[in-house]
């Protein structure tokens, strides 16, 4: 399916769960092939519509920033797999560096880049599994709307969908016009 044909298409919870299973299978295959830490990139995309012009721009910006990071650090990327489905944009990178060092670097991108809060940059270690921000002593991600811990707001559905989407659009528009 052409990317433009996916724009604005609502996806179901079942489709999202199937996409998560496919992502896990791709991760297992890359671990088996490369045995390196993986960087899994997804987007913060609340609501049933995952593919929009905005989400495309946010993912392209994330990819550009990650390429800059890899060039700056000299970390070899042994595999780079971009996925574009109705369920959203994803990318996987097999990176030849220590997993904790990679997590520190991508957490800094999440925290410091103007669009970083819209990226979900997860590091998976072949031996230990996912590395959390908390395991590195880093603060939890903050809510896009109120600044409280994001997990608490998401779990309680504290903010209406239109408020969350407006906060995302505002952040993206501010970045585009800077």
From TrEMBL:
UniProt keyword terms in alphabetical order: Lyase, Nucleotidyltransferase, Plasmid, Transferase
Tagged with keyword Electron transport: no
Catalysed reaction, written as an equation: apo-[citrate lyase ACP] + 2'-(5''-triphospho-alpha-D-ribosyl)-3'-dephospho-CoA = holo-[citrate lyase ACP] + diphosphate
Species this chain originates from: Azospirillum humicireducens
EC identifiers of the protein: 2.7.7.61
Domain of life: Bacteria
Record's protein name: citrate lyase holo-[acyl-carrier protein] synthase
UniProt GO molecular function: holo-citrate lyase synthase activity; lyase activity
Primary gene name: citX
Pfam families for this protein: CitX (PF03802)
GO-annotated biological processes: prosthetic group biosynthetic process
InterPro entries per UniProt: CitX
